[in-house]
């Protein structure tokens, strides 16, 4: 049966807050994974730009002794070349972790706010948020 207008509004706000929290947790997890995996690219490109005479031309000792313009250009190119496989690897790690923790199953539908008697998720084995409704471990995404 439908909820009253005020009750529906209150439940909508609660469910919206829960979904926003789940979204922020997913975003934070993705940011941490991408930062860790892309750290080699970030470092290589940073040192390439730091020591190139046409960009920043740092007066650091390693720029004067080790890196000239040609080696700085090589570092910049190498950094951008290794970025593509590292982005794919970071996305694979995030998707695997999100699937294992069942983070995308934690989003609640807004129909719980509109109608009374909607069932909240119950904890299943291995679910972080307890929202793995009807989770079938035999289902594959590519089928």
Automatic annotation (TrEMBL):
It is a multi-pass membrane protein. One of its GO terms (molecular function) is PDZ domain binding. Keywords: Membrane, Transmembrane, Transmembrane helix. It is found in: Membrane. It comes from the Eukaryota. The chain crosses the membrane at residues 21-49, 74-95. GO terms for cellular component: plasma membrane. The keyword Kinase does not apply. Belongs to the TMEM88 family. This is TMM88 protein. It comes from Smithornis capensis. The gene is Tmem88.
